Amino acid sequence: MNQSMNPIFDQTMNMTQMFNQNMNPMMNNQNMNLMMNQNMNPMMNQNMNQMMNQNMNPMMNNQNMNKMMNQNMNLMMNQNMNQMMNNQNMNQMMNQNMNQMMNNQNMNQMINQMMNNQNMNQMMNQNMNQMFNQNMNQMMNNQNMNEMKENAVLSRLVKEYKLCTQDNDLIQIGCNFGIENNNYYYWRVTMIGPKNTPYENGLFTILINFPQDYPLHGPEFKFKNKIYHLNVDFENDLGHICLSSINSWRTSGKVRDKPVYTVKQALFDIFCLFYNQGIEAAYSQNMALEYQNNREKFNEKAKQWTKDFASGKN
Q1: Of residues 255, 258, 227, 257, the one with CA closest to residue 243
Q2: Could you read off the pLDDT of 126-168 as tens digits, one per residue?
């Protein structure tokens, strides 16, 4: 039995030895791994730290760089802000200076304008004074000239009046002269109606009004009292005489075909109207027809008017 068991035992032992032999390497490997782990861990830790430090250092460097950049950026921003503030202040100062300059310029312009206005006013006052003095001198000269002219006209009228009052021809036709209100520019002449006319023994008053520029223009002649005559207007213009010679003399100062025309000549032309009626210059068409178609009736009316308005009683 012992012999029969030995092989099994041996085999079992062999198996155990082999297991041990196999296990020993495994254990050895395990131990080796443990040792390696023990050895590797510090190394790994060291390497890992080195790597981390290496990686962290750039990160730290980057962080520092960022800080520096931020600081620089802040500094630059502050500088720019300060510069902007300075520029703004400078702009404000410039604007203030410009406004001050503009105000000064406007003030200077206003002062210059005021000075110019003052100078202009002085010049205008001087010119006005000069013009006033010139006008006054002109007025004085004109006044003196007018006075001289008036004196000359007045002297002429006084002289002509005296000549007319002493003229025998005018006396013969019954002219009697007078002055209205002691003014030699206004004469009053009385005529007696000639015989053998509808106006016989009538006392007719003629008013003569001389202009200021006599004898350049002739005087105006009017009948003061009513007279029934073709050439004397008592409807529209009281006493106006329509006689071409005296009308031309009054308006233009000239009489056709008569280089010299005087008051004496005008009075003779008026006196001739007692004898002649100018149909072509009649004021009233009805009177003209009556004169042509019924002379007797016309003459009767003329005599009646002479009695009513020229008897010397009215």
Answers
A1: 255
A2: 776 677 677 667 766 767 766 777 788 999 999 999 999 999 9
Question: How wide is the angle at C-alpha 302 spanned by C-alphas 207 and 205, nearest 5°?
Answer: 15
Q: How far apart are CA 75 and CA 15, in angstroms?
A: 84
Q: Which residues contact 263 (CB under 8 A, 6 or more apart)?
A: 160, 164, 187, 208, 219
In angstroms, the Cα distances linking 303 to 162, 165, 227, 298, 309 are 33, 29, 9, 9, 10
- Compute CA 79 distance to the chain's CA centroid, rounded to the nearest angstrom: 60
* Whole-angstrom distance, CA of residue 272 vs CA of residue 231: 12
Q: Is residue 37's pLDDT more than 70? A: no
Rounded to 10 deg, the angle between the 263-272 and 244-252 helix axes is 150
Q: Is 242 a catalytic residue?
A: yes
Active-site residue identified among 164, 175, 242, 272: 242
**Angle between helix 2-165 and 263-272 (nearest 10):** 80
Angle (nearest 5°) at CA 270 between 264 and 275: 130
**Distance, CA of 67 to chain centre:** 75
Q: Long-range contacts made by residues 146-152, C-beta under 8 angstroms, separation at least 24?
A: 149/212, 149/213, 150/212
CA distance 158 to 185: 9
CATH pick for 152-309 out of 2.30.42.10, 3.40.1160.10, 3.10.110.10, 3.30.565.10: 3.10.110.10
Within 8 A by CB and 6+ apart from 251, the residues are 217
Name the pTM for this structure. Answer: 0.55
